[in-house]
Design brief:
By secondary structure, the chain is an all-alpha fold. The protein has ten helices and no strands.
């Protein structure tokens, strides 16, 4: 892979972690219970930490004088390469749990394969991050079963969330030219090969939660190429306000 391709690949991972962490952080102070408020806030911090590490590496590879803060706070919507599922609104608690369950199931498998990368940074990043993501998945899987096999209302609301978010899952397994080059060079992951394991990983939990697994059909895509939902602009407006209002501010 060229330096430019590695930079782009790193952006995809870092941006997804950054936007997902920012979105989860909106639950801080608003969780349904104190323990869950803390759990989601800590999860958000995990992803922001991962984003910091990956974007710092991306900036070093780019070597144009930018750092991780400039990549996070001084790019516009088309420059972000995150998966669309990461930018979806939180909705109610069940919606957030369904999104976390579907995303972290994929992300765990992605990191498992990335830990075999010939790129030492990607390999080390995956080996460290997978420990956090394993917990995120377990937390969401437990809540899927609680809410799905809970009351009639909790079951219906979780099923609705599952159906709506499902349209954003197909993008996670879609290889493009960069993914193919990354895999062939031994650096990245063949996303399409993760789908069968993902199906197995989520199906048993969905059944135990007395929910119905949605049927694969049309799905949203474009995030990796800078084509996003309207929601990302609002996230960036909040996330980047301080830096854009007071340029070069430091904590």
């Amino acid at each position: 892979m060229t330096k430019e391709q590695i930079f782009e690949y790193a952006l995809r991972i870092g941006d997804t972690s950054l936007i997902y962490g920012q979105r989860l952080s909106e639950w801080c102070g608003h969780g349904p219970a104190l323990e869950e408020d803390i759990a989601l806030t800590n999860t958000a911090l995990d992803y922001l930490g991962q984003a910091t590490n990956m974007l710092k590496y991306a900036a070093e590879i780019e070597n144009l004088g930018r750092d991780e803060d400039q990549l996070a706070f001084l790019r516009d919507v088309p420059d972000f390469k995150n998966l669309l599922i990461a930018e979806l609104p939180n909705g109610d608690y069940g919606y957030t749990i369904a999104r976390q369950f579907l995303f972290t199931s994929f992300y765990y498998l992605f990191l498992r394969e990335l830990s075999n990368s010939k790129n030492e940074f990607f390999k080390g990043f995956a080996e460290k991050s997978i420990k956090e993501v394993r917990y995120h998945w377990q937390h969401s899987a437990d809540w899927m079963k609680r809410l799905g096999d809970g009351t009639e209302e909790s079951n219906q609301r979780l099923q609705t969330a599952l159906n709506e978010i499902w349209e954003f899952t197909g993008e996670m397994f879609l290889n493009d030219a960069l993914d193919e080059v990354a895999f062939e060079s031994g650096i990245g992951v063949n996303l399409s090969l993760l789908k069968s394991d993902w199906d197995l990983m989520i199906s048993s939990i969905i059944r135990e939660a007395t929910l119905e697994k949605p049927v694969d059909a049309w799905f949203h895509k474009g995030g990796k190429h800078g084509k996003h939902t309207e929601h990302l602009g609002y996230i960036l407006a909040d996330m980047q306000f301080l830096q854009r209002t007071y340029p070069n501010s430091k904590w």
